[in-house]
Amino acid sequence: MRIIGRLPDPRMQITVFENDGRYPVQFELGGITQIYRFRKGERLSNMGHLRAYVNEDFRSAVLRQFTEMQRIQTEVLHRITPPEDPNTDLPQII
Most buried of 16, 36, 53, 92, CB within 10 angstroms? Predict the structure, then answer.
């Protein structure tokens, strides 16, 4: 798999790869990644075609999915993080 380019977007990083007759498009935001794979074909054979596929509507949907993924990640982290016990603090010395 090799990187063939990046699509500019101020909200997230978008990297386009080429691999075995496919174009994996990777979206990264805040440590979370989404990858969508598109098959090469007549209507999709270059970066220009990919730019048309990954339009603003598609990007907005990806951002909505990131919001949900971040919500789930936060929920899990709160669940596995033990609550702070106030009795474990060192006594205050005056």
Answer: 16
